[in-house]
Automatic annotation (TrEMBL):
The keyword Zinc-finger is annotated on this UniProt entry: no
Keyword Ribonucleoprotein attached: no
PROSITE patterns, sorted: CBS (PS51371)
Residue ranges of domain CBS in the record: 48-105, 113-171
Keywords recorded for this protein, A-Z: CBS domain
Any Pfam family: CBS
SMART domains noted in UniProt: CBS (SM00116)
Name listed for the protein in its UniProt record: CBS domain-containing protein
Coiled coil: none
CDD domains tied to this protein: CBS_pair_HRP1_like (cd04622)
Signal peptide bounds: none
Amino acid sequence: MPIGTAIRYQFGKERSDELTIVNNKTPAVVHNAAVFRWRIVVEISKAMHRNADWVSTETSVADIAKLLKKNDIGAVPVQENDKLVGIITDRDLVLRVTAEGRDPEKTSAKEVMSQNVIYCETHQTVEDAIHLMDQKKIRRLPVLDEKKQVVGMLSVGDISHSVSRELVGELMHAVSDHHS
């Protein structure tokens, strides 16, 4: 069975049996419960969008908006001294700049970025990222390497190319839950 075959997972529930498919090898089945679940191990480094752009804390939000539009992305990490210090999403621009009547040319990333950024690391699995997105109700994660450097971004869209439609639907429902 190849990696990427149907995945069955229910958010917020305990795991029962799992079928794990790693590196296209023979699946290992664990018999602990009556219901089987499928778990595919896909590393974040294989699913993420590589070479993600980032901005400095002094970048104007006008320039950030142009970058988001040019690259058709919804978020950009903010770095200072080669460290991740924030993230700005298209929603941040609307709520923290436009809605507050700020001048985009004179407003810097530092003034409107979200701090205490939730991120994932390249060695983790997509399943780890899904759990994190579910728990924190977020749709995008900066990806850091072992040196804590930003090496990519992982979005629900990226995940949708790595896992089943069913799991993506469950993830979308979970991260959108706070809007209902």
